[in-house]
DNA sequence: CTAGGGTTAG
């Protein structure tokens, strides 16, 4: 069933079929208080047991201080409970800081605390520190257990170093620690993260062979990877298969597939899987609802999205920041800024804190409506609420300035941003380079491109497209062709968009013959012309006065299976009007109308001009509408 | 206590 040689598998799995993989966790609980005096410690005890899920930074620090000052001292287990809760909120720096404080207060960390520290370093991609904590664990005389190892193995996997993770499993076995289901699941996850799906599946088969029953955690990452690669159908197949083999799937696996169906636009299928899950007694959670709400909104079913949110509140499934962000984003995307603002107020009313993404989304909405002053006020608001703007925030406003033809203001903000320590990325530079190109300041655009390279922000295909377009529009076709040459020599994958820009540039520079040669060479270059390519080329031929050639290309386009759009028709119609080929333009207009397109602004302008100087009859206007 | 899922920009 599988080819062992190709598959990365720890040695123990190849050597010990039929062996058991379960091992009890070592008990390392050590008490400082001896458990005698319970009265004085009740406040932090209550706090730890009454729920510290999703604990905020200030709360965590305050609770920690109370604990450190309590006499007798709380047990390490109590500290571990706090650290675990904080780690779950992904505040790894905070956990590390608190652990440091604990040491400074001469409270000994135990084996578990050290595992939590290792996990924090792993999550922060500081594997070196993680391994030295492992060394410290040994030096303190603790036996590393499966938790210590699984944490480190996960750290390696998160960095994409799966082979080393497998080696570590082998070393762990040498140290007489038997890999358990969690370790193997971690490896499966590591393989999935590197998109090595077939190896992951093979490892799962090996697990089954040696009697280690996979669970929802085993299949979760596999399903997720399939879904993220756009393969919902395969994921659904695997899902049904696993379900059929009586592996108990959980809310996460269901939600993974539900989300993928939502992303594919199969909202009905997603909803029926949601119902199926609930029927089986698996309760949907905030992730499930958030996916469904997002999908409803993308279909324009706002009331349904809002209703789902109300449902979840009724069912005591508390919506979080992401849930509101999803809803707010959907409203912003369709320009319903008022509704977005209402939901923003609602989330504040419910005590759910907006985050950078919430503010970015609202800033984006304001910028789209050219309300730049309000966007800047929103920026001030987020700063005043202690929510740090990130590169996305700045990119959105800079883009807003560029679209409002205020590239210089965009540049000022860019400099301010850099002073505040936020580092520009490729999108930032692309936006500004485009802004300068469109305002005709080609030299500034070129300088910025140089700055981008020297700052280590990698230009991508979009950067080049923006630059090529700018050069072509500003009469520097030769320079554009030089860059195109460089791009051919680089490893960059050129798409049809790049060629559309160049062909368009050639046509604008009245080099229609060159454009035609390039157009004809596209198949050789492995690039397929799209509707824009044909339209640009048709426009070029029209400009040259070769209406008949343009007509032939229009015909060929249809034969090549590319459907013309409104731009194609309007280009041809204008050319025929200019060439006084009235009857042909009437023919084209009727065909265009049959396709559901209509005359654009430029076409209407020509028609008006021709009506006023009498070259066209009034009946033409009726036919047009 | 260690492994899998949902939101933003050119």
From TrEMBL:
<feature type="repeat" description="PPR">
    <location>
        <begin position="110"/>
        <end position="144"/>
    </location>
</feature>
<feature type="signal peptide">
    <location>
        <begin position="1"/>
        <end position="22"/>
    </location>
</feature>
<feature type="repeat" description="PPR">
    <location>
        <begin position="355"/>
        <end position="389"/>
    </location>
</feature>
<feature type="repeat" description="PPR">
    <location>
        <begin position="180"/>
        <end position="214"/>
    </location>
</feature>
<feature type="repeat" description="PPR">
    <location>
        <begin position="460"/>
        <end position="494"/>
    </location>
</feature>
<protein>
    <submittedName>
        <fullName>Uncharacterized protein</fullName>
    </submittedName>
</protein>
<feature type="repeat" description="PPR">
    <location>
        <begin position="145"/>
        <end position="179"/>
    </location>
</feature>
<dbReference type="InterPro" id="IPR011990">
    <property type="entry name" value="TPR-like_helical_dom_sf"/>
</dbReference>
<feature type="repeat" description="PPR">
    <location>
        <begin position="320"/>
        <end position="354"/>
    </location>
</feature>
<feature type="repeat" description="PPR">
    <location>
        <begin position="565"/>
        <end position="599"/>
    </location>
</feature>
<keyword id="KW-0732">Signal</keyword>
<feature type="repeat" description="PPR">
    <location>
        <begin position="215"/>
        <end position="249"/>
    </location>
</feature>
<feature type="repeat" description="PPR">
    <location>
        <begin position="495"/>
        <end position="529"/>
    </location>
</feature>
<keyword id="KW-0677">Repeat</keyword>
<keyword id="KW-0809">Transit peptide</keyword>
<dbReference type="Pfam" id="PF13041">
    <property type="entry name" value="PPR_2"/>
</dbReference>
<comment type="similarity">
    <text>Belongs to the PPR family. P subfamily.</text>
</comment>
<feature type="repeat" description="PPR">
    <location>
        <begin position="390"/>
        <end position="424"/>
    </location>
</feature>
<feature type="repeat" description="PPR">
    <location>
        <begin position="425"/>
        <end position="459"/>
    </location>
</feature>
<dbReference type="Pfam" id="PF12854">
    <property type="entry name" value="PPR_1"/>
</dbReference>
<dbReference type="InterPro" id="IPR002885">
    <property type="entry name" value="PPR_rpt"/>
</dbReference>
<feature type="repeat" description="PPR">
    <location>
        <begin position="530"/>
        <end position="564"/>
    </location>
</feature>
<feature type="repeat" description="PPR">
    <location>
        <begin position="285"/>
        <end position="319"/>
    </location>
</feature>
<feature type="repeat" description="PPR">
    <location>
        <begin position="250"/>
        <end position="284"/>
    </location>
</feature>
<dbReference type="GO" id="GO:0005739">
    <property type="term" value="C:mitochondrion"/>
</dbReference>
<keyword id="KW-0496">Mitochondrion</keyword>
